[in-house]
Design goal:
about 300 residues, mainly alpha, 2 domains, 8 helices, about 75% helix, transmembrane helix, oxidoreductase activity, metal ion binding, iron
């Protein structure tokens, strides 16, 4: 019975952090970062704000959900530290989930109280992704270890493919950071058309908002090609482990949808729905990549 509660709580925890990531995107793209002024943890000097501005309530809701998610993450971390102490990954993820959720909160607080550069603000989204991925992996392990008659998944992944998953995850993080940097430098409409950039193959000047967005486009194209090649390789050489190809196929769909939503951001002049979908798809994609990396590392350890 207790394991059932842990399974449910692990899913709720991952979902809560996922919502925090999306709400952070909502805060950024509605100009609500200072909806509570420069106050933290109070909102305009109040525990519960009375202001009617929607920016205030968006920022306040983001803080409230982040606080609830942080409490859930700590509870789950302590629980799995005790319940799954024999699983090395579980203890590592317990520590990392707590570390990243509080680092994310600290960066958010710092941006409000002290103000931060575009470089650090972009990093805030990257840390949020690591926080979500840690909790997603925790949920994966909890269900794997506590379901009746389940067994630990150790697919026959070769060391080369393990490194491919690891490098792909690192590269994806760089692409994600470049996308966040585009947003925090107000470069989302640096190129106003697609696939050209302001009617040119290469933006002029290169060191400009158009250049920032163009770099993100180029990195994203490489990512799509990399995922396609990895999927083809797994379909050819890992036919006995169809789960790998399934995860990669879903990943390819997500990265494709993420690219389409990015194009629609430009075509609709930054419609909020596509900005949110852009963040949603890349968050799910990165979570799946981290699962693949974890499965690959398991095989490498044996």
């Amino acid at each position: 019975m207790k394991d059932r509660y842990l399974r449910v709580l692990s899913l709720i925890g991952a979902a809560a952090v996922f919502i925090v990531v999306l709400m952070g995107t909502l805060v950024t793209n509605t100009g609500s970062a200072y909806g509570c002024g420069n106050n933290w943890p109070l909102c305009n000097g109040q525990v519960i704000p009375t202001a009617q501005a929607h920016q205030t309530w968006i920022e306040f809701s983001h803080r409230a959900v982040s606080g609830i998610a942080s409490i859930l993450v700590v509870i789950i971390a302590v629980w799995i530290w005790i319940r799954l102490k024999q699983v090395r990954e579980a203890r590592f993820l317990a520590v990392s989930s707590v570390f990243f959720i509080f680092l994310q909160a600290f960066l958010g607080m710092g941006a409000v109280v002290w103000g931060q550069s575009s470089v650090v603000l972009a990093l805030h989204f990257g840390v949020s992704l690591l926080s979500f991925s840690s909790n997603l992996l925790i949920a994966f392990i909890v269900w794997e270890e506590t379901l009746p008659h389940s067994r630990r998944i150790v697919p026959p992944i070769r060391k080369g493919m393990t490194w491919n998953f690891i490098l792909l995850s690192i590269y994806t993080y760089i692409v994600i950071y470049s996308g966040a940097f585009v947003r925090h430098t107000q470069s989302s409409l640096g190129c106003t058309d697609f696939p050209l950039c302001n009617g040119r193959i290469f933006p002029e000047p290169l060191i400009s908002k158009a250049g920032v967005q163009y770099l993100h486009r180029a990195l994203a194209l490489i990512l799509v090609i990399w995922v396609i090649l990895t999927l083809i390789h797994c379909m050819r050489h890992y036919q006995s482990t169809p789960s790998l190809s399934i995860i990669l196929f879903v990943s390819l769909i997500l990265v494709f949808l993420q690219a389409v939503s990015g194009i629609l951001i430009i075509e609709t002049k930054m419609a909020l729905v596509f900005l949110l979908l852009h963040a949603l798809f890349i968050t799910g994609f990165y979570g799946l990549l981290m699962i693949l990396a974890m499965l690959g590392l398991r095989r490498s350890e044996n």
